[in-house]
Protein: XRE family transcriptional regulator
Organism: Pontiella agarivorans
Amino acid sequence: MEPSHEVLKKSVSDLGVKSVASDLGLSTSLIYKWCQPTGAEDASGAENPLDRLARIYELTGDRGPVKWLCQHADGYFVENVPPAEINKIPLLHMTRRIVREFSDLLDVLTESIENDGKIDPEESQKIRREWEELKSSAESFVSSCEKGLYR
């Protein structure tokens, strides 16, 4: 995983540190410090907002702020199944799980449309839940393959 200070450095590079600092009402030196490493004896960086958000998650275990940020960026948080659980699921079972969850999504879609030909807000929420479960399983599977868990 890329260090948070590198992510921020890339993020502010196009707009420029001075512009970002001005728009945030902060000093340029603070923005520069956010874009430098922290923790080592010779490091001069400062804990940045990404580090703080990660720390809030570590302390609370609540993914709400992370999900909010993803939605704010017009995206969605996709949770991976913990690797310890994936290791216990054989390859064929995992692929069946993904197909089953896709089928569940299709069932919810079909039920919504057959009901009255429309998808209302409550039905949208059901569709979203099924879609999130499918994405989570699929992402976990792909991630596990990338880590070599099915060799």
